[in-house]
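Hi V.,

Quick status before I head out on leave. The structure for the redesign project is tokenized and pasted below; the design run finished overnight.
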């Protein structure tokens, strides 16, 4: 007896994106490419996996991502590889590996693709998710930061999400951050008992992260914590001041958030996040910042850079109910032609005709379920359901006369046309 197989389900936190949802994804992607190319960005595609070391060194040993969230495996050659949890470190690697900076600075690239983090799945948080990200590498000037923030808001405007909250901070650089961290650590140590368990542990490993803990107890403690912007060295303070002047000139609205520190160690100076408060707990729709030390870490070359990544699942969730993207077959506009055949000998002719029409760029349907013996009524029902404007009826009598019947599914009228002119007729009808 055959064993009854249990259905195999998808992996938790790795959702399928179904045909009914795809129109919205495609619209976001298409509009992004257009806007990004107008800002001078070109697409780059790096592999889904990299050497584990790239992320450990790039994102930072002490971060949650490296400590807890990476999909790491040893391949058959004994090498430790990791599914990319983000794409900034891979892009920086690729830029140096292929000497792309010789093409001009800043080098501007974007990517669209899946990222992998073993986080606890919940609404808006997944283990496989998608980002659109940009990186501008090679220039330290705050002009790059300002253009990038304007680009970020431009993208969201284009998608139909104009009113989100932009939070900005400067977290300094290796010359001023140590003294800030020292002060912050002393402040937090003296209140250690009030911090949550995770933050008590973070205190030794990554004290900055205590600032963005969401538990009410920690938030109460960090409300009056020392702020990084009060500890900036002169060059960092100057960079931040010039950035803010440019943002004001560009009429970019933002709020300074002294708690904004980001979860990746590579950031220096500018850090920012875009939040959609309507989304609930996982409401950051994009995040980014400057990473002037990352190239040194990965490639041994001191080259500044800045970038951001947008979480596409969160963008799509923000758009739910807002846009008019088509969702089901029933929402599709009435167009194209369904080829119905009557009588066993004709299904092959129907097939050939359908292929000719498709090659002439006409949306064309035909019955694939039967053997060419389905009733006309049931074929017309299918044509109607699948939203075809016309139905071409190929019957034996018509065949003998070298004709087909063209039925308008909208008005209901029909006419006979010579078989040889069908494609011309329909492409003409389509254009007219
Ligand atoms: P990130 O803040 O880790 O930054 O991720 C950017 C965005 O990706 C988040 O704001 C969120 O919208 C989305 N995201 C992150 N994790 C998840 C998840 N588990 N499920 C759903 N969405 C998620 C980075 O990844 C940096 N590489 C950004 C960057 C580029 N910085 C400089 N250049």
């Amino acid at each position: 007896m055959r064993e009854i197989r249990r259905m195999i389900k998808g992996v938790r936190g790795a959702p399928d994106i179904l045909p009914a949802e795809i129109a919205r994804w495609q619209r976001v992607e298409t509009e992004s490419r257009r806007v990004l190319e107008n800002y001078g960005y070109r697409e780059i595609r790096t592999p889904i996996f990299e050497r584990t070391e790239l992320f450990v060194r790039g994102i930072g040993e002490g971060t949650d991502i490296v400590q807890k969230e990476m999909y790491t495996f040893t391949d058959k050659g004994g090498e430790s590889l990791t599914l990319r949890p983000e794409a900034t470190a891979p892009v920086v690697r690729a830029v140096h590996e292929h000497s792309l900076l010789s093409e001009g600075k800043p080098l501007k690239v974007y990517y669209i693709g899946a990222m992998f983090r073993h986080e606890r799945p919940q609404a808006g948080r997944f283990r496989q998710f998608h980002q659109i990200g940009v990186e501008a590498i090679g220039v330290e000037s705050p002009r790059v930061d300002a253009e990038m923030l304007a680009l970020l808001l431009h993208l969201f405007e284009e998608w139909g999400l104009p009113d989100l909250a932009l939070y900005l901070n400067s977290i300094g650089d290796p010359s001023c951050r140590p003294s800030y961290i020292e002060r912050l650590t002393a402040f937090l140590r003296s209140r250690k008992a009030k911090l949550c368990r995770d933050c008590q542990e973070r205190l030794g490993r990554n004290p900055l992260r205590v600032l963005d803990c969401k538990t009410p107890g920690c938030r109460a403690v960090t409300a009056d914590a020392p702020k990084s912007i009060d500890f900036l060295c002169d060059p960092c303070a100057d960079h931040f001041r010039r950035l803010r002047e440019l943002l004001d000139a560009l009429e970019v609205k933002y709020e300074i958030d002294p708690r904004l520190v980001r979860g990746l160690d590579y950031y220096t100076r500018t850090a920012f996040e875009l939040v959609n408060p309507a989304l609930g707990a996982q409401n950051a729709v994009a995040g980014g910042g400057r990473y002037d030390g990352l190239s040194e870490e990965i490639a041994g070359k001191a080259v500044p850079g800045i970038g951001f990544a947008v979480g596409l699942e969160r963008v799509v969730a923000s758009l739910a109910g807002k846009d008019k993207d088509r969702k089901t077959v029933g929402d599709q506009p009435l167009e194209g032609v369904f080829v119905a055949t009557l009588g066993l000998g004709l299904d092959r002719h129907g097939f050939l005709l359908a292929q000719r029409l498709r090659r002439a760029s006409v949306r064309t349907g035909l019955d694939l379920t039967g053997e060419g013996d389905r009733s006309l009524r049931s074929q017309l029902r299918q044509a109607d359901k699948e939203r075809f404007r016309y139905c071409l009826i190929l019957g034996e009598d018509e065949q003998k006369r070298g004709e087909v019947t063209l039925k308008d599914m909208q008005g209901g009228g029909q006419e006979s046309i010579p078989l040889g002119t069908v494609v011309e007729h329909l492409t003409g009808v389509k254009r007219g």
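Above is the designed sequence. Residues 86, 88, 117, 119, 125-126, 129, 131, 133, 135, 263, 284-289, 291, 307-309, 311, 313-314 surround histidyl-adenosine monophosphate (CB under 6 Å).

G. will cover questions while I'm gone.

Best,
W.
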